[in-house]
User: What shape does this take?
Amino acid sequence: MRLDVYIAPIAEDLRVQPVACAEREAYHLSLRETARRQRYAAWRTLEEAIRRSFGIDPETLSFHRLPSGKWTCDTLHFSLSHTRGAVAAAVSDSETGVDLECADAFEKRNGNALAKKIRTPSEAQENDSLTLWTMKEAIFKRSGGDVFIPSQIEAASTPCHTQTVLLPQPYRLSVCGDSLPALRVMIL
Assistant: This one.
């Protein structure tokens, strides 16, 4: 069992360079600058994660983008997340999902209004909307679904690991997968 999560801050001076996967390169070029930088940083973090955790050169792997927008690989499982200032890449030998959110930006952007929209009836008393959101996103990413509807995902239905990561500002990380007992979280 293997489930490794790599978290990396996005450098202010990050320059987007070509990547070996032609489909991913075309995808990067289709994005606006901020999104391009975030997704590029997430992809580079994924490449480093594959090298460190599996000892494989990512350029030898075949990646594909599904109609849902999820990226896959025939050799291993992975999940990507990006937020203001940081990215996360989870790599595993089984399906996994990861979400990383900048706590300060999340609260400013969403406040308490979001909590009412994302809770299921059984989650009505849940006060931590950031944790609930990251758990639901990680669960959704693991499932490979087509449309993210948080109010239809029971966070308690799937085992997740959630923690706060300081980079130096606080980020909330949630990861789910069959290999949770083997979870390792590393900051690059």
Remarks:
- Residues 33-54 form the longest helix (22 residues).
- DSSP finds five helices and nine strands in the chain.
